[in-house]
Amino acid sequence: MITLYQFRHSAFCLKTRMALHAKKLQYRVEEVTPGIGQFEIFKLSGQKQVPVIVDSNDQVINDSSTICEYIDKKK
Ligand SMILES: N[C@@H](CCC(=O)N[C@@H](CS)C(=O)NCC(=O)O)C(=O)O
Prior knowledge:
- The chain has 75 residues and is α+β, with helices and mostly antiparallel strands.
- It has helices at residues 11-22, 38-45, 64-73; strands at 2-6, 27-31, 52-54, 60-62.
- Helix 1 (11-22) runs parallel beside helix 3.
């Protein structure tokens, strides 16, 4: 299962959700609180922006385009 860390109203996060839906992948969403919640994002991914996904194999990926490429290649 993929976990998507996001801001609900972010276009970059919408782009990521659209890619997940296009591939019919199941995922869960963790809504990130702007500011304080980004500390966890930084600990997780080494940078503070969303979207970030964590795949079940513990792969952590940030940047919506990189995430879309990962999702596209995923079986
Ligand atoms: N190039 C990044 C941009 C991501 C981005 O700008 N995310 C914004 C939300 S729309 C963000 O996390 N802003 C918080 C910040 O920069 O502290 C991507 O495509 O994912």
